[in-house]
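Fig. S4 source data, part A: sequence.
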Amino acid sequence: MNTLDETLPKKSPKDIRRIKTIKLLSKSLVYAFAIFGIVFIVVLFAILSMLKPQGSYVANVPDRAVLNIDFDINYMETKDNDLMSELAGFKAPNFLDLIKVLNMAAVDDRIKALVGEVSVSSLGLAQIQDLRQTIINFRKSGKKAYLYSKSFGSFGQGTKEYYLATAFDEIVLMPNSELGLTGIGIEVPFVRNVLNKIGVKPEFYSRYEYKTAMDNLTGSKMSQAYKSELDKLGSGLFNRMVEDIAAARNIPSAELKKLINQAPLFSGEAFNAKLIDRVSFKQDFIEDTEKQHKAEMVDFFDYATNITDNEKGVPAIAYLVIDGVIVNGESSSDSLQDEIMTGADTVLSQLKEIDEDKNIKALVLRVNSPGGEYGAANEIMHGIEQLKLKKKIPVIVSMGDYAASGGYFVALAGDKIVAEPSSITGSIGVLGGKMVLQELWQKIGVNWERVAFGQNAGILSANTPFSNQEKAIFNKSLDMVYSDFTSKVAKARNISEKEMDKLARGRVWLGEQAVQNKLADSIGGIDTALLLAQKAAKIEDNEKIRIEFFPKELSLQEKLQRFLATGQGIIAPRISVLDKGVAQLKLLNRLKYDAVLPPIQIEM
């Protein structure tokens, strides 16, 4: 019988030369395209650099001005390290910048009034509560604040936007538009039935019944414990907003709830219900406001260029942000899944910078994280405690939208913890496991063979389920981590073991409930935390101070190096149709961490 090689025709020397030529040409084309791509990027950067404003540009602010702020812009917790923004000369403001600008405008004699705009905001509920109080403080200076909206939300999802609006003196809505004050809905994606169909078996364990992050995989519907936590969470958020809106608009709570059940409301209906003060087109509203205050409109970005916070030699308060999922290694961002990750190594290097700055007298730790890897959170907490011992400075924690699970663990290093009423915290517990693909491999005809040296060498292999021995070892590990977590909470917050059991086991708390249960110290936002830090550091009220932001903004060279090394630093465009799907993927992706908040999506 002929072999396969014997049946194939032999290649002539001419054919061999032709094949080699084609291969050489192919490689040349690949290299040429690669070189062309690099040259194109360099030329693009050079052009953008020429377009970038040179020097330090500071916009002129007229003697009589109305400050205009668009709250639909994405005010991130961290600084903007987007390479393209840097080259174009535009730097997106962060949430601290927003608070600082409003505080400055309140005492600036040139600013006569504030005009805010909102339709669909990316701000979280705790951020909105912080912002509402800052706007109320602005109004206490005797200046008027107006809110204009082309439409609150997108047909039924404008509750948080309207909640923000009620901090203003007047609310103005565009004619023939809607007020989507429809309340709060909490959605949870359960995917067990899909996994069953493809032969994937989730094998997860938790400490304890309220640590429900894996329920989305292991079950097809909510457990009673899961539902009770979401009921507590949702009712707390809803009742707080109803109470605040009712007080701001002078509407009885019962009447407001009836209006919520009738929403979305059209502009005329909203006006008749006294939910808004005027119906007007934006151009007419702007002209009327400028005429009323005999002032011209100045944009937030232009006004912000007038604020400097770089005076050297004065006492400083470090403002360190822990944002997104907490992981080992370096901090990063995933533009596809819209997920920010804070790396323990990066935070530790920032703590070293804080330690070496002799002017820093206090640290405000801003935590906006659903948790992540327990080891990384543990490392960060230890680093902060060592900083306190070595530098002898107070640490005040400011909770953002989330400071849960590993995020709360990090917060334990603070001398004081400040939370907004709707900050989501707690989730003191741990989970872990793996996705077993054994049935999937059988379905598609893949056979895995293994040689192991050590009985538990394959404990985390996705190809086989846990053996009884592996299961016992894995659960022992969870017990150890849970014991460490709860004991550190009990020690830091001076809570008895009996009370700890009532507060932990994975339970989730809102900021107000956390204060009542001694998991946090007081209600407030960034300003509250900064004032507490100033007082704890014994910095006089009339003494000049500066806020040193961490992580610091990268230089252009650093951004370019990061882009060339990792591809990070260019923000991928978001497609609105896919936004919800991207959010779902982000929530499910968090299940790989052992100290993380259950994946929930709050619609409001």
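Fig. S4 source data, part B ends here. Residues 1-9, 51-57, 569-585 have pLDDT under 50 and may be disordered.
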